[in-house]
Amino acid sequence: MAPKKTPTPAAASPQAVKSSIHSSASAAPTKPSTANLQQRSQTTSSTTSPNLKTALNNALNQGTITANQTAQNLKTSSARSSNPQDARQILEGVWNGYVDKTAQRTKLLDVFLAFLIVVGVLQFVYCVIAGNYPFNAFLSGFSATVGQFVLTASLRIQTNPENKKEFETISDERAFADFVFGSMILHFFCVNFIN
What we know:
This protein is mainly alpha-helical. It has helices at about 15-25, 35-45, 50-60, 65-80, 85-100, 105-130, 135-160, 170-195.
């Protein structure tokens, strides 16, 4: 019997090419072998996060994606995580949104919160470097800083225009009065604790 003659690619008809494409596209992806999976997981362990690696290995075991799709997913995920331009754009977007949408009063409270953080850090560093001989003085000052931070954060939350529906019954004046009253009590106890 004479061997069957297969047409060359130039001689193949368009219908034959279409049918071969459809038959190869509709074929189910083959399940990779265990050795291939282990080799892929070893080569990708340094470039992917554990969750991504686990998800990709599960998909490969189930045969829902092919090795080419896995390599493409790994390239795009490592490109996303290593692009400093994206991180800078995200930070610029957050900063621009904060500057444009935040009320002036809220920004003022944020500056005071940042000041309290700096003061607390300086007090702690001084305690570590110079010692804490009058320990109750350090505790009093640090407690005043932390307490004032908490009171200011509470004032910021209550007076923020975006939180009006959560604090409908509390006016801005009432929130400020609570802040002043709480601050007076806090500092009264801190001054008495120094003695």
